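Box 3.1 A note on notation
Throughout this textbook, protein chains are presented in two layers. The first layer is the amino acid sequence; the second is a token string describing backbone geometry. Keep the layers aligned when reading.
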Amino acid sequence: MTFFKTQRIRVWVVALIVMLVASACAPDNLDITPSATPTIAPTETPTPTPLPEGFEAEVSANEAVIEALMELLPNTIPAGAAQWQRDYSRGEDGIASLRGLTNGVGQRMYFSEQTGGQMNISFAVFDTAEDAIANYERIRGIRPVLQTGTSDDAFPEPNLFGASNQGSYGIFQIDNYFIEVFIELFSSTGSNPLKPVSRSAVNFFESNREAFEAN
């Protein structure tokens, strides 16, 4: 037997003895089984509480006023020889909310007439008269035709009218209210209905103010 073989046998014998000794010295209750990884229970998503039957979101005072005003606005607006009818094909049943208002809410109603004319009337109510005049000036600044417009002392002041081939506008501020009339299209065989429609809008506002403010 060679020297290297003898050395290997000695190493194996020593390793075997070490293993036997370690086994004999280990306590009987030694548990070398790996511990199970604890399972984390899933977190339950809380179920939202259903709203009670008949629940209605709270409506601000301004929203209540503008909704009452629009309910009173007639579906037919006379303007000279033309009869403008509410156009249910535009907006939501002919009505759309105004955007970009600060401290106020508003809506517009769309109208059309049998010769193809189109127009809309907007009403907005603000927290204060200062908010309303600020909106009046804002609209005046973004309507190019109004920057060279003229006022008419037959209407409540301030007021401003402007007309071009891209449409005609009339705007009014009355206390904390703002009114805008926009004639989009009208028959070329007739006169511009801006002033007659504006008169109808202002008359409606003044005649019904007590009623829609009472809501």
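The CA atoms of residues 62 and 183 lie 26 Å apart. The chain has a mean pLDDT of 84.
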